[in-house]
Design goal:
It is a multi-pass membrane protein. InterPro entries: MATE_fam, MdtK-like, YsiQ. Keywords: Cell membrane, Membrane, Transmembrane, Transmembrane helix, Transport. This is MATE family efflux transporter. It is found in: Cell membrane. By secondary structure, this protein is an all-alpha fold. It folds into 2 domains: about 230 residues, no CATH class; about 210 residues, no CATH class. It has 15 helices and no strands. Helix 2 packs parallel to helix 10. It is globular, with a radius of gyration of 23 Å. It starts with 8 loop residues before the first helix and ends in a 12-residue tail after the last helix.
C-alpha cells in the first residue's frame, strides 16, 4: 500500500488556528452572557470548567497517542492499522466517558467538596456539573473522533463542526438565559442544557465524518474489536502525554492560587493577561500541533530528513509570529487593557507584564514546537520526564519564592514561568538534537540502499 501524501504545514495549521480562535472568542461571549445571570453563576462555570478540563485530560491518555500513530501509519502506507487505531480509541474513550458521566451525575457533592466550593454555591454547582458532566460521554466521543480525523490530515472539517457547535451554544445560551424564541428562562440550568445539546449536535456530524475518514465506511461491529499490539503502541505514546497535560493543568491551578493569596487586583491582572496572551500564542500552538501531524506522517513514511528539519521550520516561523502578535498587543496596550478594566493599578501592572511577554512567548514556542515534534516520533516519555520537575520546581516553586517571600509579586510569577518555559524548551531542543544522527544517518542510509537497488521500502528506524 502506497504511503499517503504528506499534508502541507499551512493547510494543517490555519483550520486549527481558526478553530482555537473561534473557541476563544465564543467562550468569552459565553462568559459575558452567564454574567447576566449573576456573579455566582460565573464563579460556578469557572470552577466547573476548570474541573472538566482536568477530567478531559484522562481521555487524552488514549486520543493523543492514537492521533500520532494514525498519522504515522497513514504516512507509512498502513491505512488498515490506522483505521483499527482510530476505532479502538473511540471505543475506549466512550467507555471512560460513560464511567465519568455516571460519577458526575450522582457524585457531584463529593467533587464540590473536594474543590472547596463555597456552601452558598454548592446547589448551583450541583445543577450545572451534573448536567454538563452527565454529557461527558458525548465530549469523549467528539474528542476521540475529531482527533482521529484531524490526524488523517483533514483539519478543516473538525473546524467547521467546532464553529457550528459554538455558534449553536451561544444562541441557545441566549435563548435559555433570556427566555428568547419561546423557550423557558432557565438560568444556569439552561446554560448546562445548551452545552449538552450543542455537543450532541456536533456528535452527529463528527460520527459521519469519522465513519468515512478511513476509506470504506466504519461499521458498528468494528467497535468491538481490540488489537493488543496496536493498543500497547497507543498507550505507550499516550500515557506520558496525558500525565504531562495533567501536571501542567494542576500546576497552573496552584499558580493561580498563589496569585489569589496576593489579593484581588493581582488575580484580576493575571486573569486579563491570560486572555491577552492567548491571542499571542494561539497561532504558535496551532502551528506546533500541525507540525506534530506533519512530522508523524513524514516519520511513518520514512522521510526522516524532512521530518527532522520540519521541526525547525515550524519553530522559526512560530517565533516570528508570536513576537509579531506580542508587538501588536504592546502597540495598542493601553487601549486593549482599558476595555477590560478602569483600575489604574491593574492597567499599569498589565502594561509592565506585556513587556515580559517578549521573553515569555518565544520560550513557549520553543517548548511547544519541539515538544510536539518529539511526541510525533514517539518520544513523549522523555518530554514528560523533563517537564514534570521543571513545572513544579521552577514554574511553581520559583514563582512562589519570588512572589511571596521575596515580595516580587506578579513579576516573580512571570520570572518563574519564563524560566520554566526556556528550561523545558532547551531540554527538548537538546533531545531533538540527539535524534539528529539517528534520523539523518538513517535517511542517508535509505537513500544509499535505494540507489543500490536493494531497498524493499520497509526499512524501519526505531527511536
Amino acid at each position: 500500500m502506497a504511503a499517503q501524501s504528506t499534508p502541507r504545514i499551512w493547510s494543517l495549521t490555519w483550520p486549527i488556528m481558526i478553530e482555537m480562535m473561534l473557541q476563544f472568542m465564543l467562550g468569552t461571549a459565553d462568559t459575558l452572557m452567564v454574567s447576566r445571570i449573576s456573579d455566582d453563576a460565573v464563579a460556578v462555570v469557572g470552577i466547573s470548567n476548570m474541573f472538566f478540563n482536568a477530567v478531559i485530560i484522562l481521555f487524552t491518555l488514549v486520543t493523543s497517542g492514537a492521533g500520532i500513530l494514525i498519522a504515522q501509519k497513514l504516512g507509512g502506507g498502513k491505512p488498515d492499522e490506522a483505521r483499527q487505531i482510530g476505532i479502538m480509541s473511540v471505543s475506549i474513550t466512550v467507555i471512560l466517558g460513560i464511567i465519568i458521566s455516571v460519577l458526575l451525575i450522582y457524585g457531584t457533592s463529593l467533587f464540590t467538596t473536594a474543590l472547596h466550593v463555597p456552601d452558598n454555591l454548592k446547589d448551583l454547582s450541583h445543577t450545572y456539573m451534573s448536567i454538563v458532566g452527565g454529557g461527558m460521554v458525548i465530549t469523549a466521543l467528539n474528542l476521540s473522533m475529531s482527533t482521529a480525523v484531524r490526524n488523517t490530515g483533514n483539519t478543516r472539517s473538525p473546524m467547521y463542526i467546532a464553529l457550528g457547535m459554538n455558534i449553536l451554544h451561544v444562541v441557545l445560551n441566549y435563548a435559555f438565559i433570556f427566555g428568547a424564541f419561546g423557550l423557558p428562562e432557565l438560568g444556569l440550568m439552561g446554560v448546562g442544557i445548551s452545552t449538552v445539546i450543542s455537543r450532541t449536535a456536533a456528535f452527529f456530524f463528527q460520527q459521519h465524518l469519522f465513519r468515512h475518514a478511513f476509506g470504506a465506511p466504519v461499521l458498528v461491529r468494528e467497535f468491538g474489536r481490540f488489537h493488543a499490539k496496536l493498543l500497547k503502541e497507543v498507550l505507550k505514546i499516550g500515557w506520558p502525554i496525558s500525565v504531562n497535560g495533567a501536571s501542567w493543568t494542576f500546576s497552573q491551578v496552584v499558580i493561580f492560587s498563589i496569585i489569589a493569596s496576593m489579593g484581588e487586583q493581582p488575580l484580576a491582572a493575571r486573569t486579563y493577561m491570560n486572555t491577552m496572551e492567548s491571542f499571542a500564542f494561539t497561532f504558535g500552538w496551532s502551528l506546533a500541533l500541525a507540525a506534530q501531524i506533519q512530522i508523524a506522517h513524514l516519520y511513518g513514511a520514512k522521510k526522516l530528513r524532512q521530518a527532522y528539519y520540519s521541526a525547525y521550520r515550524a519553530l522559526g516561523f512560530g517565533v516570528i509570529v508570536v513576537l509579531a502578535n506580542t508587538a501588536v498587543l504592546l502597540l495598542f496596550r493601553t487601549s486593549i487593557i482599558s476595555t477590560f478594566t478602569k483600575d489604574p493599578w491593574i492597567i499599569d501592572m498589565a502594561v509592565s507584564l506585556l513587556w515580559l511577554n517578549l521573553a515569555l512567548q518565544p520560550g513557549k514556542m520553543l517548548n511547544m514546537a519541539l515538544g510536539q515534534s518529539l511526541g510525533a516520533v514517539g518520544d513523549s516519555r522523555t518530554v514528560m520526564t523533563y517537564s514534570l520537575p521543571s513545572m513544579w520546581i521552577i514554574a511553581v516553586g520559583v514563582s512562589y519564592v519570588l512572589a511571596i517571600p521575596m515580595h516580587w509579586g506578579l513579576y516573580g510569577i512571570y520570572i518563574g514561568m519564563i524560566s520554566d518555559e526556556y528550561l523545558r524548551g532547551a531540554l527538548c531542543y537538546f533531545r531533538w538534537r540527539k535524534h539528529r544522527k539517528k534520523l539523518l544517518f538513517a535517511a542517508a542510509f535509505r537513500e544509499d540502499v535505494k540507489l543500490s537497488g536493494r531497498s524493499n521500502g520497509n526499512d524501519a528506524v526505531p527511536l
